[in-house]
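Quick one, tokens below:
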């Protein structure tokens, strides 16, 4: 079993007297900063001068400064900007001002795993990775709960990196749910695989194919949206509560029988596993990372074209229309930070 930590294993006092610098104020950045401040920590924000997040962070009551200024002042520097931007920013704005005794932290191991960032000796390097979007990290904290987190220490220069990492995660609320020990390599490879093969890539393709199959067969696109997309959350919520068994307990026997006889027809086991292994191999040998880095250096042509195509897909346009008419609709502005 993986080693687990909880609130009793974490000492927030290990952060007393330390300045925590959060680099970035997007989904994860705002959540970490607000949660840590609410936990009694001293938090400052580092951003690009003139960036759109600067006034947002100031409005939320934080002292905001450039990343070099933050690096000089902070004891713990948590990097929460996009993966593809971290290496250039680190080399230009952090490394020249980094001194021994400080700690560098990440919420995802991508840049360490693929050696895009090489922290110097004399600094701690750890990972505090919530297993959920930043907006959920914040809303769960406000509700008195927490999002499960992964913890890893890549470099323990001070001999205290584990204590600091666990205290940091407790500060963002993760210890309320549970903290699992891992390595930055393992987190990176499993996270990328999960996103690509199942959670994002796999699920989106499955929903799209189901939606198109029903629409092409003459069914109303609104019904196709409800059956193949809207209900996905309802099913996943049941699985989160008690595994697949809880879902099967809650659905009809007809639906459960269909799961057994039709699931393997849609996703043939051997072929699907072979395709997934190919995806995993690309992650393990650096092929995916190389493509993503190259994509960002050459203008993101493929990325932007795919995003534009998806935005025009009928499942997206129909879904937007339906959600606007439903009484259960929620605020769909994911950039609204809960204070």
């Amino acid at each position: 079993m993986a080693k687990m930590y909880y609130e009793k294993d974490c000492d927030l006092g290990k952060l007393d007297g330390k300045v925590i610098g959060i680099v970035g104020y997007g989904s994860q950045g705002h959540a970490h900063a607000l949660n840590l401040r609410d936990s009694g920590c001293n938090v400052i924000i580092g951003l690009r001068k003139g960036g759109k997040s600067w006034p947002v962070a100031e409005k939320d009551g934080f002292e905001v400064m450039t990343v070099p200024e933050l690096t000089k002042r902070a004891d713990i520097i948590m990097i929460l900007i996009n993966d593809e931007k971290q290496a250039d920013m680190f080399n230009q704005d952090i490394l020249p001002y980094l001194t021994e005794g400080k700690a560098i932290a990440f919420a995802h191991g991508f840049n360490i795993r693929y050696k895009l960032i090489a922290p110097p000796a004399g600094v701690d390097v750890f990972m505090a990775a919530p297993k959920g979007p930043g907006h959920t990290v914040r809303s769960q904290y406000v509700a008195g709960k927490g999002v499960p987190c992964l913890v890893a220490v890549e470099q323990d220069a001070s001999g205290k990196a584990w204590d600091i990492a666990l205290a940091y995660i407790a500060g963002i609320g993760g210890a309320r749910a549970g903290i699992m020990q891992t390595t930055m390599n393992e987190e990176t490879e499993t996270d990328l695989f999960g996103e690509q093969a199942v959670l994002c890539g796999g699920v989106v393709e499955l929903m799209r194919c189901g939606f198109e199959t029903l629409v092409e067969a003459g069914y109303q696109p609104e019904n196709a949206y409800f059956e193949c997309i809207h209900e996905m959350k309802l099913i996943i919520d049941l699985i989160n509560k008690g595994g697949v068994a809880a879902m099967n307990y809650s659905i009809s026997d007809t639906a459960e029988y269909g799961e057994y006889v039709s699931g393997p027809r849609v996703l043939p086991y051997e072929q699907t596993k072979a395709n997934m292994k190919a995806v995993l191999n690309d992650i393990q040998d650096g092929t995916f990372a190389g493509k993503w880095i190259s994509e960002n250096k050459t203008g993101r042509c493929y990325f932007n074209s795919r995003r534009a195509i998806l935005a025009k897909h009928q499942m997206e346009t129909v879904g937007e229309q339906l959600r606007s008419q439903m009484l259960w609709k929620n605020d769909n502005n994911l950039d609204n930070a809960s204070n």
